[in-house]
Amino acid sequence: MRSRLYETAGSNGISVVKKMKSLLIEIGSEEIPARFVPKGLELLKADLTKFFDESSISYGTISEYATPRRLALLIDVAEKQEDRTISSTGPSKKAAYDKDGNPTKAATGFARSLGIDVSELTIRETDKGDYVSATVEKKGSPTIDVLSEELPKIISSLKLPKSMRWGDSSLRYFRPIQWILATLDNKVIPFELNGIKSGDVSYGHRFLSPKAVKIKESGSYLSLLKKNHVIADCNERKNMISKGIKEIESLAGCRAIEDEELLETVTNLVEHPTPVLGNFEDKYLSLPKELLITVMRSHQKYFAMEDAEGNMASSFIAISNMNTAINDTVKRGSERVLRARLEDARFYFIDDQKNKLWDLIEELKNVTFQEKLGSVYDKAERISSLSAHIADRLNPALKEKAQRASMLCKADLVTGAVGEFPELQGYMGMTYANISGEESDVATAINEHYMPRFAGDSLPSEEIGTIVSLSDKL
Asked: What is the pTM of this model?
């Protein structure tokens, strides 16, 4: 339940409890890239609450909503600012008064900026000398008036990770802003930003219900959008996707490979999520598992599926942004697009096997590692030298294998598969090493030498991988 009461000082100095007002802000835009949706909402919330704190505006419960086309906050706020006592320090005494004690332009300007007479200024002693100061009692303004002036500044000054300008405007945002909804207790907070006037109107789903949606009461924001095929609550969309995946799993007899990061991504790609089951030809199951998953995950944002034994299934789950009425159309389209991507992957996988992995090492001489540090081939030789040094001290019996793994560890960078799917470097090297007849611990080290890739990542499982990993990072 929302806490909608706050305490403030009455005219007689005695505290009184008042009811908070409901502030609703929604910035509508062209589709924001999925990875920026959570960050944008976080920044909007942080900047707005910081402003409330600095402006002595009490606030309570904050509800956050976001889709690819909107960032929205519903906040309980006080009706007006608290009355404040503001102490300000101005110019030095020497600069504020002439030798006869008359105020200079510096003193009169400082007094004018505070809205007081120059006679009300006082002198305050500081570590740096005597300075002019003043204490002003400032009455709080109605919150709606403060927001009318400040909201355009807050929106236009958001420190977004990546932004763009459009038209002739200097305003920067993720994507061009299309509308701004701003109300306080259902009254429009009037302002204009980049030619867009604030109002009490939102918009439904781009295709299923593109009409304007008038928000007469902030409490009906979610339900009105839902009627127009927009699920504004990220958690609700996420749960809908998870539930839909479970239903498909029970029908298909196989399970989606768990992928929390992909789930977060698709949640922020759609406004009206509908999971759809698709299939592909069994011939593609001959591709390495991670290659199959990457094609579906990274390029198409599909969930790959596997059977109870962990073997890849020739099925996938796509998350549509439409309703179930066109599931068959979505299924056919998704299958057609995936088929083309899988065919590319199959071509590269077959073509890469025309050469043994060791034969590709020479090509690394044509790949620059760093201008002053030579080629990737030079890098591999340095790794090999360090690996020999470390192996001599840890386990001399592994020296030869460690050196071989070191020379091979970057060879997959010149393969077609890694060129198309860079995130598979190491894994494809291991795969091709096994196909080329390399010893299994050498092949494993090729994949594991990148570990750990980040804080908290898994460590190499075998000693050779540990040696090569250390050498690569030194």
From this structure: 0.86
